[in-house]
Structures are given as C-alpha cells and as structure tokens.
Amino acid sequence: MRIALSTGGGDAPGLNAVIRAATFAARRRGWDVVGIRDGFNGLLFPDQYPEGSGVYSLDASNVRSIGHLGGTVLGSTNRGNPCHYPVTQADGTVVYEDRTAELVQRFADEHNDALITIGGDGSLSIAQRLFEEGLRVIGVPKTIDNDLDRTLVTFGFDTAVEIACESIDRLFTTAASHSRVFVVEVMGRNAGWIALYAGVASGAHVILIPEIPFTYESVARAIRRREEGGAHYTIVVVAEGAAPLHGHQEVIAKPLDHAERLGGIGHAVADELTRITGKEARTVVLGHLVRGGTPTATDRLLGSRFGAAAVRALDEGMNGVMVALNEPHVEYVSIAEAVGRLRTVPLDCDTLLAGRELGTSFGDD
Ligand code: F6P
Question: In the annotation, is 145 catalytic?
C-alpha cells in the first residue's frame, strides 16, 4: 500500500499534526507514504520541482516533531484548481481546462493506491471529483473559518480564535487610554464564527458578522450608550464578510483562479462611525496573523485525531469519505455530502445569544 498526502487551500494551524499522525499511522501498518507538494502541483507540474521532488517520501525522519509547527510542510495553494484550470490565451482571454484525467493518470503512474487530501470546501470538492474519476480518496476537513457543515469543528479555528482574542484584549487598554473606537477586522469569509467567538471571549462591545446585516446607526447608538455610561472607548469586531443592511461585502480583489478576496469592511466601518459619532475610530486588520504560527493544543489534538482516523478509514476499506468530529467520536461522512454546504452562524446559536445577554451589540437593534 502506498498512500499520498496533500494539503490544499489556505493553510490552517494543525495541518502538520495531521501529516505527522497520518504518516506515523500508515508507517505503523507497513505502508509507504508520500507527500505531494503545493496542493496537487507537485504531481501535476513535476518539472517545476528540482529532481522530481514534487512528490517525496514521508517518514519519521521528516515528520517527527512537526506537530507543533504552524503552516504545512507540504506547502499549499488555493490557486489553479486542476478541475477548472485557468489558461490565459494569446489574446488575453482566459479559458478553463479540466485537468482531472491527467492528475488521475499521474497518480497511477506514481503507483499510489490512495490519497488523503486535507482541505476546505474547495479542496474537498476536487477530492470528490477525483473520487468520481476512480481515485481512492479520504478527505480531512480543514479551515480556520469553521464553515464546513458536516463536522462539529475544523482544526485551525481554535488557534484563529485564540490569536484574535489575544489581539483584541491588547486593544482594550490602548482604546481606553485614548478614548477611541477600535474596529478589528478578522477573517472568516462568509461565516462569522471567528468574529463571534473571539468577540464574545474578549468582551468586545460590538460584533458584526455576515449572518446579521448591520446598520451604522445601530452601532453608533451602542457607542453613544457607552459614552453616556462613562465608557469613552468601544471595541468593534467585524468579520471580513459582514455587510451593512442593503449594502454589500467589501472585496479587495477577484482573481481569475481564486475565490473573491474579501476585506476592507474594517476601514469602511471606522470611517462611517467617525462621521456619525465624531469620535476617532481606528482600524486593525488581523488578516493572516490569525492563521499563522503555533497551533493551540486543541488544534494539534484534533489534527492528530483526524490524521489517524483517515488512515484507519483506508485500513477499513473506506473510500470517498471525509473524517468528521462528532464528539466523542471521529466519524466518516461522504465527501459528496460534506461539500458545498456552508455552515454559517445560526441566529439561535448559544454564543450569539450569550453575547446579546451580555449587552453586546450586533448592529441590528
Ligand atoms: O479560508 C481561510 C481564509 O483565511 C479566509 O478566512 C480568508 O478569506 C481567505 O482564506 C484568505 O485567503 P488568501 O490567503 O488567499 O488571501
């Protein structure tokens, strides 16, 4: 048995724990393990790597002691989906090619028997396609956004919340010292999980998430209420995908081979709040900081559990499934069932209700 591991999409703390666990679990069974570099690029574009190193052997010598490291030793990419690969023509127009068959052929040429692919919705959709084309595939869900529907939680999320919370904590003292409004923009794409969890944990005064369209007047009222109560500073946490009622999401760029890049709402909120309240409002965009660096113990543990469970799935003859957390168990759900189902924050989510009980404004009252 020879298995290949690949990591795709934006990196998430805990990926190396999955790679380490899957390698150890497979090696224990006497299987060969290889890693594909940069999503599927190492397999699809071998010439781009020196001496065929786009696919390389994984064993104790190169995976030991990596569980506590952020990022992914395999490299990752969220560009160039092989099933929908953008090719720019001489006249500047772009056509999309389906390179799935080529990828499946290369996989077989390398004598791989099965693939463990670790990724978010985009990478898992590719995994599903590969499965449909005959590849033996196990998916491992990953995203800091925590927006995959069929698992209780994804690794990377806990670290992102931890870093966001610590950063917001630090802004409290400087906000209070200068009687300022601080607007902290956090990642999360179309789901508000990171903003909600970090906002409630840090005691932010306003939390704006994509699931709840906000009005600037409502946020300004929350600031005025605080002023009247003697608190001359306010912390606003805004998810990058949040948008005002009847407004639209702020987009930085729309690359050809990549999902729309969200961002900019933090500055828009600060500008508008200064205009309405007359108070100085500053913006801090946490961006990629929340997904870099050392994973929390929770994420390392979940990554290790998922990596081991993915190998167990192969050992038990499974195919086309994704590992999923359903405490206290790791279960298996079909990848087809798991992809394309965005899990956003439900309006009756207990953390959201707790925030409201504590007097947090969600910009909708
Ligand atoms: O999906 C993870 C994520 O970090 C999102 O929260 C964010 O919108 C996006 O990826 C950023 O992608 P990139 O690193 O390509 O800018």
Answer: yes
